[in-house]
């Protein structure tokens, strides 16, 4: 087994904590950083540090942002009474691509930061739903679009939210199956995502 100097071994171990990065990938990244100029290495370290210092969660929708409320929640051009619920901040980009199409999504978002997954210890208390529930109770929402992925966890989360948020004054819809079952919405193309939004059904 190859033994590396302590600073290299420590960097490799930290890089392995990143999603999709195994031992060999972590080693390649670590040696790339080692071969980089001092300026590039410092810029990378500063970018990581700045990410942790400057970014926070929007107090309204839980999106990752450097301003509060985020750009979506503070935009007067958006329909704030139409809320699209997504699992992760990365999913917002897929929905935003529909805005280039006629009739694309014009509302705002709410980010759950996960899905219900009893096997992984994720229950309702671990999902960020309190501000969404408060908006519904205050009568600030006309329609909620449940745009969780069509996986077992995503469907279970959508069903739970539909029950939790049900109100006579709020229409709750679920995106259509333009997004293939078992896939991740984050990777849906513009046309597929547009059709899913247009074909949403009430739940």
Whole-number mean pLDDT: 90
Supply the CATH architecture of the largest domain.
Answer: 3-Layer(aba) Sandwich
> Count of helical segments?
7
Gyration radius, rounded? 20 Å
CATH topology of the largest domain: Dna Topoisomerase Vi A Subunit, Chain: A, domain 2
Question: Which word captures the global form?
Answer: elongated
Helix and strand composition category: alpha/beta
Tell me the count of domains.
Answer: 2
Strand line-up in the sheet with most strands: 4-3-5-6-7
Question: In percent, how helical is the residue content?
Answer: 25-40%
What's the helix-strand series?
A: HHHEEEHEHEHEHE
User: Approximately how much beta-strand content do the residues carry?
Assistant: 5-15%
How far apart are the first and last residues' alpha carbons, in Å?
A: 56 Å
Quick one: biggest sheet? Answer: 5 strands, mixed
Report the uncertain regions.
Answer: none
Q: What's the total count of β strands?
A: 7
Give the C-level CATH assignment of the largest domain.
Alpha Beta
Mind sketching the topology for me?
Blueprint: H1 6-15, H2 23-35, H3 38-54, E1 56-57, E2 64-65, E3 79-86, H4 91-96, E4 107-111, H5 130-137, E5 143-146, H6 152-165, E6 171-174, H7 190-198, E7 201-202
Parallel strand pairs: 3-4, 3-5, 5-6
Antiparallel strand pairs: 1-2, 6-7
Helix pairs in contact: 1-2
Question: How would you describe the overall organization of this protein?
Answer:
This protein has 203 residues and is an alpha/beta fold. The chain has two domains: 6-54, RecR Domain 1 (Helicase, Ruva Protein, domain 3), CATH 1.10.8; 78-202, Dna Topoisomerase Vi A Subunit, Chain: A, domain 2 (3-Layer(aba) Sandwich). It has seven helices and seven strands; from the N terminus they run αααβββαβαβαβαβ. The chain has a five-stranded mixed β-sheet with strand order 4-3-5-6-7, covered by helices on one side. Strands 1-2 form a two-stranded antiparallel ribbon. Helix 4 links the parallel strand 3 (79-86) and strand 4. The radius of gyration is 20 Å and the shape is elongated. The N and C termini lie far apart (56 Å). 28% of the residues are buried.
């Amino acid at each position: 087994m190859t033994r590396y100097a302590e600073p290299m071994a420590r960097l490799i171990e930290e890089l392995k904590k990143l999603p999709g990065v195994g031992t060999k990938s972590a080693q390649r990244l670590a040696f790339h950083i080692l071969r980089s100029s001092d300026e590039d290495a410092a810029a990378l370290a500063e970018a990581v540090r700045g990410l942790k210092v400057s970014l926070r969660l929007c107090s309204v929708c839980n999106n990752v942002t450097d301003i509060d409320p985020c750009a979506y929640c503070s935009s007067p051009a958006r329909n704030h009474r139409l809320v699209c619920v997504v699992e992760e901040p990365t999913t917002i980009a897929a929905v935003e691509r529909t805005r280039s199409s006629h009739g694309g999504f014009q509302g705002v978002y709410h980010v759950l930061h996960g899905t219900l997954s009893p096997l992984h210890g994720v229950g309702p208390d671990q999902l960020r739903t309190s501000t969404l529930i408060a908006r519904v109770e205050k009568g600030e929402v006309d329609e909620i679009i449940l745009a969780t992925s069509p996986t077992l966890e995503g469907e279970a989360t959508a069903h739970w939210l539909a029950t939790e948020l049900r109100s006579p004054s709020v229409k709750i819809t679920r995106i259509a199956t333009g997004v293939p079952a078992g896939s991740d919405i984050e990777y849906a193309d513009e046309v597929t995502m547009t059709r899913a939004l247009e074909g949403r059904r009430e739940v």
